[in-house]
Specification:
single chain; about 130 residues; mainly alpha; two-stranded antiparallel sheet; 6 helices
Length: about 130
């Protein structure tokens, strides 16, 4: 049985953004400068976050939106208004970025299950 999926532009865009791998495009610089690659990956995660949030909203995945607010935005807001020494701020700002990367990783793992299949040659299907 050949399984086909219904097209969904929001899901396609979200999947394309989450599956970007900069080390595949330029493997030699990634080998020589892994710290730059890590920084570029975090910058890309921050830049593409509004698009990801908009796609989750259009897909009506409100649980993922709530988990984004609780795991990324809430710690960032708490750290922003925490009264700590100025030299500790860069270390504390890596915590929301780490949560953002973990959020993107988990989202990338489960996005494949969101596609609606079109069953062909199944009893009772309307497909001709």
């Amino acid at each position: 049985m050949n399984l086909r999926y219904k097209s969904n532009p929001h899901l396609d865009r979200l999947e394309k953004i989450l599956n970007i791998q900069p080390d595949k495009a330029a493997p030699t610089p990634a080998y020589f400068f892994p710290d730059v690659l890590g920084s570029a990956s975090m910058l890309a995660a921050v830049i593409f976050t509004p698009v990801i949030i908009w796609s989750l909203f259009k897909l009506k995945r409100y649980g993922w939106l709530i988990s984004f607010v609780l795991t990324v935005l809430l710690p960032a807001g708490i750290i922003r208004y925490a009264s700590v020494d100025w030299w500790l701020w860069p270390a504390l700002y890596t915590v929301p970025l780490l949560f953002l990367v973990i959020f993107h990783f988990v989202l990338r793992q489960v996005i494949h299950d969101w596609r609606d299949p079109i069953f062909t040659n199944a009893p009772g299907s309307d497909y001709k």
